[in-house]
Amino acid sequence: MWAIFIDEDIVTLVDQPEGHGEATVYPYRQIEDNLPAGQRGQFKYRIENGEVVGERVAPVISLDTLKAHTVGRLKDKTNEILSETDWYIVRAYETGDPAPQDIVNYRADIRAVCNTKEAELLGLSTAEELNSFSLSAIDWPVDPRLPVVDPADKI
Questions:
Q1: 0.85 cut: is pTM over it?
Q2: Which of 8, 16, 28, 125 is deepest in the core (most CB within 10 A)?
Q3: Tens digits of residue pLDDT in 8-17
Q4: Contact, 15 vs 4, CB < 8 A?
């Protein structure tokens, strides 16, 4: 492969070095990356020892963007948990019969955990702090429909 440069900018990559007029043509080498597919950014080019070297670099993502993505995942998880008891609320709306109070309290507790964790996330000031935040480590309230198991009753 060959890289065509005009005015110090790469224009394109070609198979043959001949027939490109006034453009400067350099041999081209691409450095393989180990980035996961979702983290691949654009190529960065440099001239090194008489050849053009192309290297894919990870995109730079702002802390605010990372926070927004993580808050979105938190809200998705919250909605997933709430959706399991949505039918109680729909039934109450449609029939006028109240939803069980333990379900109403449970849903309020789920929303409270989400709000608390969202505030924690938005208060983080470094990528390292954000990377240490784990959605799987959140202590969600226990669904009141689940049977209570006494740890002494192990099989």
A1: no
A2: 28
A3: 666 677 777 6
A4: no
Distance, CA of 39 to CA of 37 (rounded, Å): 5
Contact at 8 Å (CB) between 4 and 20?
A: yes
pLDDT tens per residue, range 28-70? 777 776 666 556 667 777 777 878 777 777 667 788 989 999 9
Beta bridge partners of 13: 3
Q: Give the Cα separation of 130 and 133 in Å (integer).
A: 5
Nearest-angstrom CA–CA distance, 54 and 45: 5
96-132 pLDDT tens trace: 999 999 999 999 999 999 999 999 999 999 888 988 8
Integer Cα distance of 64 and 80 in angstroms: 24
Alpha-carbon separation of residue 69 from 60, 80, 92, 113 (angstroms): 14, 16, 33, 18
Cα–Cα distance for residue pair 3/20, rounded to 1 Å: 11
Q: Read off the tokens for 15.
A: 């198979």
Return the structure tokens found at 6: 């005009």
- The CA distances from residue 76 to 50, 84, 147, in Å, are 51, 13, 26
Q: Where are the domains of the chain?
A: 2-56, 63-144
How far apart CA 37 and CA 53 sit, in angstroms, is: 21
